[in-house]
Every structure is written in C-alpha cells, then in structure tokens.
Amino acid sequence: MTFRALPGRQEIVLLLLLIGVLLLAGRLSPDFLSARAQNELSTHVWELALLALPMTLIILTAGIDLSVGSTMALCAVAFGLYFRAGWPIPVDAGLALLVGAAAGALNGVFVAYVRVHPLIVTLATLAAYRGVAEGVSLGRPFSGFPPGFAVLGQGSLAGLPIPGLIFLAALLVTALLLAFTPLGLWLSAIGYNETAARYSGLAVSRLKFGLYTASGLAAGLAALLFVARRNTAKADIGTGMELDVITAVVLGGTSIFGGRGGLLGTVLGVLLIHETREFVSWQWSRDELNLIVVGALLILSVLADSLLSPRRRQ
Length: 314
Prior knowledge:
Largest sheet: 2 strands, parallel
Oligomer: single chain
Helix content: over 70%
Distance between the termini: 15 Å
CATH architecture: Orthogonal Bundle
Mean pLDDT: 88
Low-confidence stretches: none
C-alpha cells in the first residue's frame, strides 16, 4: 500500500521514454520542438491533464470513471443551452460546472452507497450522459460565444496559457492535500483492502462519493476550456477522452488494482501521451495511427502494472 510523492522507478522510466520521444521527434522533424510549435500544440493537453487528476485518485481506490468524456459533452451542451437562453456567461459557466458535479455525484451515489461496481455504473452513464446531451441539443452545435469567453481557452497571463495555469492550480491543490493530509494513505488503504479500511474507521463511502463528484466537476471545467478554445459546444466532444485519461494514469504507475500510485507519474504519463500523439499527427497526419498508439500504450502499461504489482508476483 503506497502513495508515491517522490520519483520512483516508474517515473524515471517514463521520463526517459519522454526524452526518447522528443529526441526522435527532433531528429525526424526539428520544427516540432520549436517553442512556437510546442506552444500551439499545448492547447490540446489541458483538458486531458485536468481529468487525469481526479482519475488518479479514483483508480488509487481500485475504482474507475468511464463517463468523463460523456460528462464533458453534457456540460458543454448545458453551457450552450444556457447561453442560448440569454443567461450571462458567468452564470452559464457556473451552471455547467454544477451539471458536471451533479453527474459525478450520481456516479458516486451508485458506487459509494448502492455499492454497484464502478465499471458498471460509469459504463452506463457513459452512454446515458452522451445520450442526454444528444437528445437535449438535437445533435446541433452551439456557437457564437462572446470573444471575452475565448480568453479562458486561448488567453495567456504573464506569458503562460490560462488553461495551463488553471491546471497548475488544480495540481498544486491536489498535491498539497495529499502531502499535508492523510488523504493519500486513506485512498491507498481503500484500494488495497476496502473491507479492512472500513473496519479501521475510514469514511470509505464519503471519500468515494467525493472523488466521483470531483471527477464530474473536473469534466465540467474541461468542457468549458474546450468550448472556449473551439468556440463550439456540441454533444460529440470528449469522445474517447476516457481512454486517453485512463491510459495516462495507468501509464503513470497508478495500479489498476488500487493501492499504489502518484501524481508525478500521472503528469509524466499525460506528457508522454500528448507528445507522442501530437508528433504522430505532425509527422503522418493520420488519426487512426493515434488510436493505435494510445491503445498500444494502454496495453503495455497494463502489462507492466500486472508484472510489477507486488500482489501479482506473490
């Protein structure tokens, strides 16, 4: 039962892989590593990075949230509907975040209190939330948002992208909670042996409920960043996002069996997936190759986790 706050073997391997990808990219296409290209490509990573934070904590408890992409779509459509109804942008954004938190809380109720397996619950809501988004929007996109709103997804502050600053703030808050409270140990204990954690007096149900609610809230924030960047809200955004998020977290060393993981590995996993995908698109411009790359990374990460897990070696 471990929650890693410092670099370990997994993080070092990921760092070396990331350096290797960048060196290969620089050799094949030097322009890819230019500051201008990297700055432009970085706009694609922040939604993934935000969603990976609560997903790390959920998988640490041996849970999973397959509905994050569909929750993004639901929040984006909600934002568009409120905007079309004439509500002010700040109110629209707040209500969209509330929709995300409510969607996550619904997952949390079934996982934490009804005790349905999270795979079943979030697989069901993956379909249900996107279906609701498609139904209420009639499959039509929403656009025409004011230029000021685009700053959220495209603006910068002190030379740093605003979405990146939002992610760094979320990462800092999460890291401080894990570093200066027993939260990391509690979540690891739940993932390692939930029954023992309950008998030890941990508020397992409340913790799980909070994690899934936070995941929904993060999906709502990711939806706002996406809509601000693309100036479009529609029901098909976030399709396949859950695959990228789970791959990044598992690739970062958080065990799919629960009880072991860390934020540093997740951040490195996000960077590795982002740089690999962007370079494949840059070099070959074929989306199907990206799907193959992400799938291969997920399989390799699961195999590595299975081989390295202490419980599997016994």
